[in-house]
């Protein structure tokens, strides 16, 4: 089979598309999947540089989420059968034509969802749903700020926040990106390159600040968020796309009764897989109802993986970027 292979730490330029052996024999709790599409995530760009929480042994293929067709199931697997259309979560190995996944990480697709949509669905939508529903306890009528609102996870937070009944304030770095967020339901738009986020959030909330702030950016954006979150508000730490990991002045948390809440969605696979299953059940229902409409901005063949990763690294994508294994 074909797979993108990483043999040393570095950028996408150091990866190669190679012919490799198919994955080995199945463990009793595993499923073999013929991959039709794979989602590109910022975490992939960190993993190949050796800067992710997990450092696989060389050689390995990046890729944390895929969609495809079940080819074979292990002897202990129930509820999945060859021929099922599924999406799956992986520790790595998604930029390939086949992969093995734990059955607990494999989910049958609703009829309304195609492979390319599904490949970019689990991490972005799963992160945002668990962040807003399980971690922040977002309530209908609350004010939600979403930073990086046109990006892979930010756009899903806009949609899910609206579906949960919040008023959504979207921030992004261009009019085009804000238009994408508006198209997914954002009520108010802030261009952080031309507007002051803190002043605009205060203005839009009558001076109170936002009840919940969803931040996948970090750096200066996080610092600003601390100063425009409401008393008793919740600040969700999703990631650090800006590059700088901010430090939190604990006195601000104390004075305003703010909760700074970390969201490491991947850890739920180990510690609370039932919560992930419950979350996906809710998300599939929202998709079937048309309440969320996943946005895949770029679809590229597997051989163009470097271009696909560059779209994320250079922040030129909106929504998700997906690799497809068939032309």
Blueprint (SSEs and pairs):
Layout: E1 2-5, E2 16-19, E3 30-39, H1 42-47, E4 65-73, E5 85-89, E6 98-102, E7 106-108, H2 115-119, H3 122-135, E8 143-146, H4 154-163, E9 167-172, H5 175-183, E10 188-191, H6 197-204, E11 210-215, H7 219-226, E12 229-237, H8 250-256, E13 259-262, H9 268-271, H10 273-288, E14 296-301, H11 305-313, E15 320-324
Parallel strand pairs: 8-9, 8-11, 9-10, 11-12, 12-13, 14-15
Antiparallel strand pairs: 1-2, 3-4, 3-6, 3-15, 4-5, 5-7
Description:
- The two termini are 15 Å apart.
- Strand 11 (210-215), helix 7 and strand 12 (229-237) form a beta-alpha-beta unit.
- The chain contains eleven helices and 15 strands.
- Strands 3, 4, 5, 6, 7, 14 and 15 form a seven-stranded mixed β-sheet that branches.
- The chain folds into two domains: 2-121 and 294-324, Medium-chain alcohol dehydrogenases, catalytic domain (Quinone Oxidoreductase, Chain A, domain 1, Alpha-Beta Complex); 124-266, NAD(P)-binding Rossmann-like Domain (Rossmann fold, 3-Layer(aba) Sandwich).
- The protein has 327 residues and is α/β, with parallel strands linked by helices.
What is shown here, in short?
With 327 residues, the protein is an alpha/beta fold. It has helices at residues 42-47, 115-119, 122-135, 154-163, 175-183, 197-204, 219-226, 250-256, 268-271, 273-288, 305-313; strands at residues 2-5, 16-19, 30-39, 65-73, 85-89, 98-102, 106-108, 143-146, 167-172, 188-191, 210-215, 229-237, 259-262, 296-301, 320-324.
């Amino acid at each position: 089979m074909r797979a993108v292979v990483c043999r040393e730490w570095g950028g996408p330029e150091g990866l190669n598309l190679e012919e490799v052996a198919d994955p080995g024999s199945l463990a009793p709790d595993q499923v073999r999947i013929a991959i039709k599409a794979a989602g590109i995530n910022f975490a992939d760009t960190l993993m190949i540089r050796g800067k992710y929480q997990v450092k696989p042994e060389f050689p390995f293929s990046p890729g944390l989420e895929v969609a495809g067709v079940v080819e074979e199931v292990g002897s202990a697997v129930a509820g999945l059968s060859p021929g099922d259309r599924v999406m799956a979560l992986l520790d790595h190995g998604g930029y390939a034509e086949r992969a093995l996944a734990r059955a607990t990480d494999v989910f049958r697709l609703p009829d309304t969802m195609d492979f390319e949509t599904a490949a970019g669905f689990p991490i972005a939508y799963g992160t945002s749903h668990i962040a807003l529903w399980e971690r922040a306890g977002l309530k209908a009528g609350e004010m939600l700020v979403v930073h990086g609102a046109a990006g892979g996870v930010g756009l899903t937070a806009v949609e899910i926040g609206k579906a949960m009944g919040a008023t959504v304030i979207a921030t992004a770095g261009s009019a085009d990106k804000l238009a994408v967020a508006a198209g997914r339901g954002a009520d108010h738009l802030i261009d952080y390159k031309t507007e002051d986020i803190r002043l605009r959030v205060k203005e839009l909330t009558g001076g109170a600040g936002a009840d919940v702030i969803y931040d996948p950016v970090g750096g200066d954006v996080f610092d600003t968020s601390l100063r425009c979150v409401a008393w008793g508000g919740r600040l969700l730490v999703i990631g650090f796309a800006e590059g700088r990991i901010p430090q939190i002045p604990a006195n601000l948390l104390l004075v305003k009764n703010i909760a700074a809440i970390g969201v490491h969605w991947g850890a739920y696979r180990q510690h609370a897989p039932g919560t992930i299953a419950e979350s996906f059940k809710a998300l599939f229902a929202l998709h079937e109802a048309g309440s969320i409409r996943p946005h895949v901005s770029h679809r590229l063949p597997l051989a163009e993986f470097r271009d696909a990763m560059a779209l994320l690294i250079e922040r030129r994508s909106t929504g998700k970027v997906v690799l497809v294994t068939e032309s």
